[in-house]
Design a protein that fits this description.
Shape: globular
Strand order of the largest sheet: 2-1-3
Number of domains: 1
CATH class: Mainly Alpha
CATH topology: P1 Nuclease
Structural class: mainly alpha
Distance between the termini: 58 Å
Largest sheet: 3 strands, mixed
Number of strands: 3
CATH superfamily: P1 Nuclease
Strand content: under 5%
Number of helices: 12
Helix content: 55-70%
Bound molecules: zinc ion
Length: about 270
């Protein structure tokens, strides 16, 4: 019994030690690492040159970590809302209330357009920054609660407990799910997830940012429904939840990775 209590304490400490930021670093690393495996040779070479030999995995969480720095405040303050879109119940990207500062869809559209149609007019540092942002934002776009409701700030106001600890649904999906589901590093995640056939890859490596975002809206809606159907205030989510939603977690990481490759191949391939 004592052993069990200690194990529980360790698990609780572990699960509560991650703060809310998009997919946590692990999720972004997995998405970027899957993408890296599916880059065309030409795209890989262009990215190697731009990023000075560092990989897209190295920079996958850069946009989260830099956003409070003076560099960011000066040049990119307008991008603070570009990690997500907030969609109230029953709405889609087309019908949701748009944020005047932009969202993950308009942000990605802008960056992609700049890197394709306006490349020659960008400075080197802008090219590099835009690539790093795209790597991060395609990951965020596939994180289900990044299409959460406006009324509760993307699930930040949806109170739940995670293995007994008070948290919210946004934070569960940013990092708690991935860190609880497995104790893998990104390499193990990639090895285990990236095993699908060509047909599946082809079916997801297409489409538009709006369509991809609307997929995320549907997943977010299902996650809200699940919690609301439990019918209890501040419900405790634990092993059963991890079991029930592991498929969704894996799908979002994998599809996000394939689509990031598709975007980078389209720009640089
Ligand atoms: Zn983010």
């Amino acid at each position: 019994m004592k052993k069990f209590a200690i194990a529980l304490l360790c698990a609780t400490l572990l699960f509560s030690s991650f703060s809310a930021f998009a997919w946590g670093p692990e999720g972004h690393d997995v998405v970027a690492a899957i993408a890296e495996k599916h880059l065309t040779k030409k795209a890989k070479k262009a990215l190697d040159e731009l990023l000075g030999g560092k990989s897209i995995i190295y920079y996958s969480s850069w946009m989260d970590s830099i956003q409070n720095s003076p560099y960011w405040e000066d040049g990119y303050n307008k991008t603070k809302t570009w990690h997500y879109g907030n969609v109230d119940k029953g709405l889609t990207y087309q019908t949701m209330q748009k944020n005047p500062d932009g969202d993950v869809v308009t942000g990605l559209e802008f960056l992609t357009r700049e890197l394709t149609e306006n490349y020659d007019n960008l400075t080197d540092s802008m090219r590099v920054d835009y690539v790093k942002m795209i790597v991060h934002m395609v990951g965020d776009m596939h994180c289900p609660m990044h299409a959460g409701r406006l009324s509760d700030r993307g699930g930040n106001g949806m109170k739940v407990r995670w293995f007994g600890q008070n948290t919210n649904l946004h934070s569960v999906w940013d990092s708690k799910m991935i860190n609880s589901a497995r104790k893998w590093g990104y390499i193990e995640w990639v090895e285990q997830l990236d095993r699908t056939d060509k047909k599946f890859k082809k079916s997801v490596m297409r489409g538009t940012y709006e369509e991809w975002f609307n997929d995320t809206v549907k997943y977010a809606a299902a996650l809200y429904d699940y919690v609301e159907n439990l019918g209890t205030e501040n419900p405790n989510l634990s092993y059963q939840y991890v079991y029930d939603f592991s498929d969704l977690l894996e799908n979002r990481l994998l599809v996000g990775g394939y689509r990031l490759a598709y975007v980078l191949n389209t720009i640089f391939g």
